[in-house]
Write a structure and sequence with these properties.
Length: 301
């Protein structure tokens, strides 16, 4: 289950559901929050096509397309109701984690698209304030995926020095550096909206953000992730985003609330779950599975 890309239908998408960029991401994120994050699928919206069978050996995951529910959950906001793309709500506690997905498809990343991207940042920050004012403990993330032509031309040299001269490749290299500068400015702005630590911190900041570039409309390169961006060590790596959201959730809802720990602690799935075997072979899952040998083996693998 690699990160979803335009035009590809994933097995986590129930039959009859659309598979555009954001829709694909919703199902991917919802399934990942269960398999890797250890959240009960009944808590997640949209509800992924996954069921949990509990017995004396532990909790086993199975793939069940009929269990999927495509609707998003409406949450109370300070100014208006909000419907995050993916949310996790624990009964009797309320919303604990949410993720907003931003997708930009088609064309090229150019200076002319900066106003469009900047306007998106203003809306993204406003959405964060709207929910954090009502749910200050909510672990909120934002993942922006840009699917555009020529993302593979944003080579590391251009990204690390976007203001450099044209070099050996003339106007083509200069154009790529200009595009890299546009992405870099957006990257830096998104970083400033990320890394909220404490529930008393700025409500306009997310707990974690991510930025991913995907090649769009380029033949056999269609759907290819730009492996060089974000650059190494960036706070906007999408895998890091998931890791950070889990860590912040554990700090706020598990380690700091011992009286509720049995309810809020993230689940550990039995390593012999049918879904995990299917995911490893058929879906190409690249993230960690939260599994153990049985109910008494609490080691994470």
């Amino acid at each position: 289950m690699n990160p979803p890309t335009p035009g590809i239908r994933f097995t986590t998408i129930p039959s009859g559901q659309s598979a555009d960029l954001v829709d694909s991401l919703r199902w991917y994120v919802a399934s990942r929050l269960v398999i890797e994050g250890g959240f009960d699928p009944d808590w997640v919206r949209p509800r992924p096509p996954i069921t949990v069978n509990r017995n004396r050996h532990g909790s086993l995951l199975s793939h069940d397309p009929d269990a999927a529910k495509s609707g998003r959950r409406a949450l109370l906001g300070a100014l208006r109701a909000a419907t995050p793309d993916v949310s996790v709500t624990i009964p009797a506690i309320g919303p604990v984690l949410a993720l907003s997905l931003e997708g930009m498809e088609g064309g090229e990343v150019t200076h002319g698209r900066v106003p469009e991207m900047t306007g998106g940042l203003e809306r993204i920050a406003g959405s964060c304030v709207n929910l954090h004012m009502v749910y200050p403990a909510l672990v909120y993330g934002c993942w922006h995926v840009i699917a555009a032509a020529g993302t593979q031309d944003l080579v590391p040299s251009a990204l690390s020095d976007p203001d450099a001269g044209p070099g050996d490749h003339g106007d083509h290299s200069l154009r790529n550096r200009a595009r890299a500068a546009t992405i870099r400015r957006y990257h830096d702005a998104l970083v400033r909206l990320s890394e909220r630590e404490d529930i008393r911190d700025d409500p306009s900041r997310y707990e974690a953000c991510a930025l991913t570039l995907v090649e769009h409309g380029a033949g056999h390169h269609e759907g290819t992730l730009n492996a060089d961006y974000p650059p190494p060590g960036s706070l906007l790596d999408y895998n890091r985003m998931f890791e950070r959201m889990y860590a912040v959730y554990d700090h706020r809802f598990v380690n700091s609330t011992t009286a509720l720990r049995r309810t809020t602690e993230r689940r550990v799935w039995h390593r012999d779950s049918p879904l995990l075997a299917e995911a490893g072979v058929d879906w190409g899952v690249t993230f960690a599975r939260r599994c153990a040998a049985g109910p008494r083996d609490r080691k994470r693998h």
